[in-house]
Design a protein that fits this description.
Helix content of chain B: 55-70%
Shape of chain A: elongated
Shape of chain B: globular
Distance between the termini of chain B: 92 Å
Order of helices and strands of chain A: HHHEHEEHEEHH
CATH class of one domain in chain A: Alpha Beta
Strand content of chain A: 5-15%
Radius of gyration of chain A: 34 Å
Helix content of chain A: 25-40%
Strand order of the largest sheet of chain A: 2-3-5
Largest sheet of chain B: none
Number of helices of chain B: 13
Number of domains of chain B: 1
CATH architecture of one domain in chain A: 2-Layer Sandwich
Oligomer: heterodimer
Largest interface: A-B, 40 and 38 residues
Bound molecules: iron/sulfur cluster
Radius of gyration of chain B: 24 Å
Number of strands of chain A: 5
CATH topology of one domain in chain A: Alpha-Beta Plaits
Chain lengths: 221, 400
């Protein structure tokens, strides 16, 4: 073999120092094509075989919806309901917590003092005179439920809410209470709240003096 | 003048009525078939994808096709502002007319080659250029697509039309080449005679001595129908709807029917030219046959056609779409050379008077082609040794 020319040798030397010439370089190569691959036909036949195998397997994953209802997880957030207490009164104390918490601004409450002379209401101070939720505007985030101190508002697992007009989708107090009456029978109460027991704030009112101070505040705070 | 016309009508009535009856059968059956092929296709697609498919309208969803038909006829006629109105209306009609016209020379049941009077399963029996006319007419349907794309005056449509044009021109050639071998051995362009030549044993079917021609024919014919994996002219992901982007309602249905008529044509042609038509071992031929035998032959032909239709539908759900250069490459670098070499083989066998079953050896051709293309591909992707040693940076892929 003859000596390579000087500038050729220099060029080779320079190339040898390039990163691609280092020992650490791993070479990625395209997989080799075999005759069968290049013929296409075996691949087509195996594709057809896959299609036929699925077609004759008879295992459809389709659920026939209106007849077979899906299983809704218990913590699903669907249509709201307004809970009733043991006496059948609306449990809501019109504290506006949910309305304040709602990021979609779809709750509207007008509070009224409870009729003190009525024996039915004598242990209550306030109650919601009107309580409307725009179900179209709601994003079903569950903030209202979390904010409510007495677990009066809850999201049920009703998922198939429809309506023909926008007005129909604005739920008032009666409608929300009727959702409670309907869903309470099914035994599928929402799991996030205290399932009809009084919430922590209600308990706090009777034991306020003995309760430890809220975290981060002094006794006097 | 009018009297003369009526007189000659009466005079020719015995030869006229079978043709009219056959036309009636085609006009009645083909749109219905098109409608129900959409249903069958949806069902098969569903089964392939582990779904159920249409099952609400009628028993097993059988009336879905009719409901679809009614719906689409009642749809709003949307005419965009920017279209060339006359051509816009003409194009879908043209598409369907050419698709249906090609059926004139196609026997849809057993037809004897002695052509007695009376009802026959063909509109125009004994056309000696049958297959040629069929090819000529069905390639005219590209015209409907191109005119439609042009008249729509929209980018997507014209792109679809241009693609369709290129595709039709490319795939006409292998289509013709693949049929040439069959024609050369039969010595006739008449479809009934070609089928007649396949009577006798199972191995007289053309597919058993012309497998490559069958492969090329089927691929090219599938491309002519604009279906997956060859549906470049209307691929949704790139071109919205391709040439029928601007079409809606009944005009869209015409295009749709034309496409399904093409599938019917292609399936019939495959069955007639390669799968022995209405012949089946043990079944007597149609000449002088009684009605039950004829009906049996009809059943055999329809069974073969359904088989081809089934394969076409299944192919749609198992193959991805081609890239456009791959599409062109398949025609010009794959099918046309295959068809040409196959034709040379037929010519050699014919001129030396060898038995035609020697042509089964042509299956070696695609294998050779595959060997060549695999070797070429592997050579093109291999990393040269000089690069490995760092002597040339070309082709280097490093993962440092
Ligand atoms: S779920 Fe969310 S958006 Fe809906 S009412 Fe409650 S807080 Fe508002
Ligand atoms: S947070 Fe609860 S108690 Fe307060 S207004 Fe809303 S529903 Fe009523």
């Amino acid at each position: 073999m003859s000596e390579p020319q000087t500038n050729e040798a220099q060029k080779n030397e320079a190339l040898k120092n390039k990163p691609s010439a280092k020992k650490s370089v791993k070479w990625g190569e395209a997989p080799k094509l075999t005759i069968l691959d290049a013929l296409y036909l075996p691949a087509i036949v195996s594709g057809l075989a896959t299609a036929v195998r699925h077609a004759v397997s008879g295992k459809a994953t389709t659920r026939q919806y209106p007849e077979v209802e899906p299983e809704i997880p218990p913590n699903y957030r669907g249509v709201h309901r307004l809970n009733r207490d043991e006496a059948g009164r609306v449990k809501c104390v019109a504290c506006y917590m949910c309305q304040t918490a709602c990021p979609a601004n779809c709750i509207e409450i007008i509070a009224a003092p409870a009729p003190k002379d009525d024996p039915h209401w004598k242990d209550r101070d306030k109650f919601p005179a009107t309580f409307t939720i725009d179900e179209l505007r709601c994003i079903y985030c569950g903030m209202c439920e979390e904010a409510c101190p007495v677990d009066a508002i809850e999201l049920t697992s009703i998922y198939d809410l429809t309506g023909m007009t926008r007005e129909e989708m604005i739920f008032d107090k009666e409608k929300l209470l009727s959702v409670f009456d309907e869903t309470v029978k099914t035994g599928r109460d929402p799991v996030r709240t205290n399932r009809g027991k009084l919430g922590p704030a209600a308990e706090l009112s009777s034991t306020a003096k003995d309760a430890p101070p809220p975290p981060g505040r002094g006794k006097s705070g | 003048m009018i009297n003369n016309l009526i007189n000659s009508l009466f005079e020719y009535w015995p030869v006229l009525w079978p043709a009219l009856a056959a036309i009636g059968v085609i006009l009645a059956v083909v749109p219905f078939l098109g409608l129900y092929m959409t249903f069958v296709e949806r069902k098969i697609a569903a089964y392939v994808q582990d779904r159920v498919g249409p099952n609400r309208v009628g028993p097993f969803g059988l009336f879905q096709a009719i409901a679809d038909g009614i719906k689409i006829f009642l749809k709003e006629q949307l005419i965009p502002d920017h279209v060339f109105t006359a051509l816009y209306f003409l194009a879908p009609a043209f598409s369907l007319i050419t698709a249906m016209f090609a059926l004139v020379v196609m026997p849809f049941g057993p037809v004897a080659t002695d052509y007695k009077d009376g009802f026959r399963f063909i509109v125009a029996p004994g056309i000696d250029i049958g297959i040629l006319m069929m090819l000529a007419i069905s390639s005219l349907s590209a015209y409907g697509i191109i005119v439609g794309g042009w008249a729509s005056n929209s980018k997507y449509s014209i792109y679809g039309a241009i693609r369709s044009c290129a595709q039709f021109i490319s795939y006409e050639i292998p289509l013709g080449l693949s049929i040439l071998g069959v024609i050369a051995i039969t010595g006739s362009l008449n479809i009934e005679k070609i089928v007649e030549a396949q009577s006798g044993s199972l191995f007289d079917w053309n597919v058993f001595w012309q497998p490559v021609a069958m492969l090329v024919f089927f691929t090219a014919a599938l491309a002519e129908t604009n279906r997956l994996p060859f549906d470049l002219p209307e691929c949704e992901q790139e071109l919205v709807g391709g040439f029928h982007t601007e079409y809606s309602g009944i005009k869209f249905v015409l295009y749709f029917l034309a496409e399904y008529t093409h599938i019917v044509t292609v399936s019939f042609l495959t069955a007639l030219l390669f799968l022995g038509g209405w012949h089946f071992p043990g079944l007597p031929g149609p000449s002088g046959a009684s009605t039950p035998i004829l009906l049996l032959g009809l059943g055999v032909l329809l069974a073969k056609v359904s088989l081809v239709v089934l394969v076409i539908i299944l192919l749609r759900w198992s193959l991805p779409r081609f890239r456009f250069d791959q599409l062109m490459g398949l025609a010009w670098k794959g099918l046309i050379p295959l068809g040409l070499v196959n034709l040379v083989g037929v010519a050699i066998v014919l001129s030396l008077g060898l038995p035609k079953h020697l042509l089964i050896a042509t299956v070696i051709l695609p294998v050779l082609g595959a060997y060549y293309s695999a070797a070429k591909f592997n050579a093109s992707t291999a990393i040269p040794n000089a690069t490995r040693q760092g002597l040339s940076p070309q082709g280097a892929v490093s993962y440092e």
